[in-house]
Amino acid sequence: xxxxxxxxxxxxxxxxxxxxxxxxxxxxxxxxxxxxxxxxxxxxxxxxxxxxxxxxxxxxxxxxxxxxxxxxxxxxxxxxxxxxxxxxxxxxxxxxxxxxxxxxxxxxxxxxxxxxxxxxxxxxxxxxxxxxxxxxxxxxxxxxxxxxxxxxxxxxxxxxxxxxxxxxxxxxxxxxxxxxxxxxxxxxxxxxxxxxxxxxxxxxxxxxxxxxxxxxxxxxxxxxxxxxxxxxxxxxxxxxxxxxxxxxxxxxxxxxxxxxxxxxxxxxxxxxxxxxxxxxxxxxxxxxxxxxxxxxxxxxxxxxxxxxxx
Length: 310
Ligand code: ZN
What we know:
Radius of gyration: 19 Å
Strand order of the largest sheet: 1-2-3-4-5-6-7-8
Shape: globular
CATH superfamily: Aldolase class I
Largest sheet: 8 strands, parallel, barrel
CATH topology: TIM Barrel
Strand content: 5-15%
CATH class: Alpha Beta
Bound molecules: zinc ion
Distance between the termini: 48 Å
Number of strands: 8
């Protein structure tokens, strides 16, 4: 029995950040490899306007072609009702609403303020209620906005209350531009869990400043058991300046497993999949385990002392 649930988001967050278009069949084969790693949930794509993110314009086709073992939940991001209809038609299990914590990031991302965007969610949530698709919310730039800096706790509470009014009680807190630190993570998560004990919060962490694993551990220590990550650390955000990838799945799984926290994911298969992505997109992958190997891979001790440098 796993202690944490890792949602693989490379097919959405990772692929959407790549400048070069990946052919659909190649995407399908990468996703099928990820499915074989044992994830319980994969964020397969985003039903955004094809002009906004051309890389994901084949969302429906990808969902039609990938394997669907029982027990695997497929999630997609949706910006609007049109996206939701496409997601329902493609038979995803879950959709995630895209929302920014701050008005500046929201204007860049969705061309309206945070609460204008939330008002637009109302018909989506109602429509989804008549379908088998489960709706989750998100709060991007939750731990710092590249335009406004710190996001006050009051703002998180206000946003979460609005979600509550709509009946959305599953929220992904995203450190979109890697501005979080363990203290901030604990402060925000504790405040939200105290105010909304019936909610389920998860963490989506980018490793922009090398803090993502520390942040994941901090989240785990205050009760978070759901984390997003991307194989090979692929990722970014087209709307956030200098954003880099999600925490690499192999780094997160390896780190947790080293600490005795079960993930239920096959690390060696993840590493194999990560290697092939790194080979294909060397400039867009970022992973400690691919560089250093697992802690358990011991080296043969040298027979004599070899002194290099001082
Ligand atoms: Zn992301």
